[in-house]
Amino acid sequence: GEVMVGHDEL
Amino acid sequence: MNVFRLAGDMTHLLSIMVLLLKIHSMKSCAGISLKTQELYVLVFATRYLDIFTTYFSFYNTVMKIVFLVTSFSIVWYMRHHKVVRQTYDRDQDTFRHHLLVIPCFLLALLINHRFTVREVLWTFSLYLEAVAILPQLVLLQRSRNIDNLTGNYVFFLGAYRGLYLFNWIYRYMAEKSQLRWIPWISGLVQTALYADFFYYYIKSWKKREKLQLPA
Known about the structure:
The complex is a heterodimer.
Chain A lengths: L10
Chain B lengths: L2 H23 L8 H14 L10 H23 L17 H13 L6 H15 L2 H9 L5 H27 L6 H12 L2 H12 L9
Family (chain B): Belongs to the ERD2 family.
Subcellular location (chain B): Endoplasmic reticulum membrane
InterPro entries (chain B): ER_ret_rcpt
């Protein structure tokens, strides 16, 4: 899927 | 990953470890709100759906699994473990937590970054996390006797989002990241809800007294 902004955070 | 983000994640992890330590070593969940723990299960389950679809890093995947597994197991212990569940303050933990879920979901439908299932659920998880501590704070206020592990658990849990605020400031300034009002404002609200608790926690720590919140 497409990586959304900030989704690398927990 | 910057130092604030890492410190935030480690504080979050530490809070969960403290709670598990209390449950495992004392076989007690006295002073812990099951309502808040159930809300966290919902927060993590809706936020970490992307665990199957998007790979960020080994760190990211492991942390997501840890948060999911630990939140589910805490609720399981409080509901089903034959010793632990008897220590649950059922009569004091009366916050109607379902009433937080619906407004957060409606808000996520209205105010989101993009109207997709994943993004709406992600946004919902941020809104719900911001207020998920409320049943726990109400229970603490009703508790005449807050043990150290419970006090430390809530302190680390509050400190984690506070450290994330610094992470967002850093990312915005150093990495020229976009404006991200939804997590920023949610995180600010979440941290602000702890203000009162932080005040009494630090005061009792300085005076070496037992933590007690005014009713």
